[in-house]
Structure to design on (154 residues):
């Protein structure tokens, strides 16, 4: 077997998954009960209408009872697709306003949360309502597809 050819095909498959996204074995229906309550980022809209990054506690932001959809983005600063996904989520938060919570979990900072929820590749986006997972995707997804997914979960 040609090792160089195998590596190139494997690399191409990995990059394709990271760029176009994929669905992983879904955890839909699982809850965040028992997850560590580590510090995470939450996107907010400031008085000037610009997106601001604030600090919050994971369980306080995600395990809620107000029917609001909560998008949890598991990411890292070194992850290229994660950095490309970030502006999509910011634009969606800006458009949806207070009807949507966007929480960003840096897997290098909030390692206990990522481990507890079995995050194995990033970007990994999970969508919760009332602390229960109702949707997800892994990899980079176009903004329009993310919005369509969110609308289907309203």
């Amino acid at each position: 077997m040609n090792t160089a050819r195998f590596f190139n095909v494997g690399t191409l498959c990995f990059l394709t998954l990271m760029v176009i996204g994929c669905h992983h074995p879904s955890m839909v229906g699982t809850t965040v009960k028992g997850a560590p309550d580590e510090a995470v980022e939450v996107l907010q809209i400031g008085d000037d209408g610009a997106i601001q990054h604030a600090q919050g506690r994971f369980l306080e932001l995600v395990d809620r009872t107000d029917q609001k959809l909560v998008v949890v983005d598991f990411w890292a600063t070194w992850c290229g697709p994660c950095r490309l996904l970030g502006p999509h989520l910011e634009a969606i938060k800006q458009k949806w306003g207070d009807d949507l919570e966007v929480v960003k979990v840096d897997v290098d900072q909030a390692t206990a949360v990522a481990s507890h929820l079995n995050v194995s590749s990033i970007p990994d986006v999970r969508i919760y309502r009332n602390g229960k997972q109702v949707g997800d995707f892994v990899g980079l997804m176009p903004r329009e597809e993310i919005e369509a997914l969110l609308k289907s979960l309203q």
Notes: DSSP finds five helices and six strands in the chain. The beta strands are 39-45, 51-57, 69-75, 100-106, 124-129, 132-138.
